[in-house]
C-alpha cells in the first residue's frame, strides 16, 4: 500500500530572473510505501510504519535540502539520526544535504520516493527498517545556474526511545542531472 504523505515539501524562491520559471512550481509530496517485511506484520503496523518513517524522511529532506536560500544550518537534517550516525553524517554533509548549493537562490524537490523493507521479531514487533530512496532536486541561481541533482540509496532505521531513527546510510549522489 502506497501512502503519499500530506507533507508538501517546497522551497522558497528569492529574486529569480524573469527568464526562469518560479522555483515554487508544483510542490512534490514524499511517496512512501512498504515494499516488503520479513516476519508477520499486520496492515495497521505497515501503515503506521509508512507514516513514522515518512516523518523521519520528511524532516530530513526539509532540513537538508529545502527552505529559504541562500542558507546555512544543514546539520539540522541529522536530528532524527542516532548519535553515531549523526556524527558520521556531519562529516558527509556535502553528500547527504544540499550544502554545496548553499549560495543558490532556491532548491526544490522534483521527486521524493521511498520504498521500505522492514523486519519484525517473533512477536510481530517491528525492530528495523530500510528505506530505499530516490530523491531528485533542482538548485537555481548562485554560482551553479540551474543544477539538477539526486540522491539514491538507503537509510537504515531502528527504534530508539520509541521513535524511528536513522542509524546508517548507504547513498550515492548524482550531480549530473540524470534521473535514475
List keywords for this structure.
single chain; 180 residues; 3 helices; elongated
Strand neighbour order, sheet with most strands: 1-2-3-4-5-6
What ranges have pLDDT less than 50 throughout 5 or more consecutive residues? 1-24
Global shape:
elongated
Helix and strand content put the structural class at: alpha+beta
Strand content: 35-45%
How many beta-strand segments?
Answer: 6
- Our Rg estimate from Cα atoms comes to 17 Å
The share of residues in helices is 10-25%
User: Could you state the order of secondary-structure elements as H and E?
Assistant: EEHHHEEEE
Mean pLDDT: 85
Q: What would you note in describing this structure?
A:
- The chain is 20% helix and 42% strand.
- With 180 residues, it is an alpha+beta fold.
- A six-stranded mixed β-sheet has the order 1-2-3-4-5-6, with helices on one face.
- The longest helix has 23 residues, at 43-65.
- The protein starts with a strand and ends in a 6-residue tail after the last strand.
List the helices and strands and how they pair.
Layout: E1 2-9, E2 28-38, H1 43-65, H2 83-91, H3 93-96, E3 106-120, E4 126-140, E5 146-160, E6 163-174
Parallel strand pairs: 2-3
Antiparallel strand pairs: 1-2, 3-4, 4-5, 5-6
Amino acid at each position: 500500500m502506497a501512502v503519499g504523505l500530506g507533507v508538501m515539501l517546497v522551497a522558497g524562491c528569492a529574486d529569480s530572473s524573469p527568464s526562469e520559471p518560479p522555483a515554487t512550481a508544483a510542490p512534490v509530496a514524499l511517496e512512501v510505501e512498504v515494499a516488503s517485511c520479513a516476519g508477520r506484520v499486520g496492515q495497521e503496523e505497515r501503515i503506521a510504519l509508512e507514516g513514522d518513517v515518512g516523518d523521519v524522511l520528511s524532516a530530513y529532506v526539509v532540513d537538508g535540502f529545502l527552505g529559504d536560500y541562500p542558507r546555512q544550518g544543514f546539520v539540522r537534517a541529522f536530528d532524527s539520526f542516532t548519535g553515531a550516525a549523526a556524527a558520521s553524517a556531519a562529516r558527509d554533509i556535502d553528500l547527504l544535504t544540499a550544502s554545496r548549493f548553499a549560495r543558490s537562490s532556491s532548491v526544490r524537490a522534483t521527486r521524493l520516493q521511498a520504498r521500505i523493507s522492514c523486519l519484525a521479531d517473533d512477536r510481530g514487533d517491528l525492530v528495523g527498517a530500510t528505506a530505499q530512496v530516490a530523491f531528485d532536486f533542482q538548485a537555481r541561481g548562485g554560482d551553479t545556474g540551474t543544477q539538477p541533482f539526486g540522491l539514491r540509496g538507503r537509510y537504515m532505521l531502528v527504534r530508539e526511545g520509541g521513535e524511528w531513527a536513522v542509524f546508517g546510510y548507504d547513498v550515492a549522489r548524482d550531480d549530473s542531472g540524470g534521473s535514475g
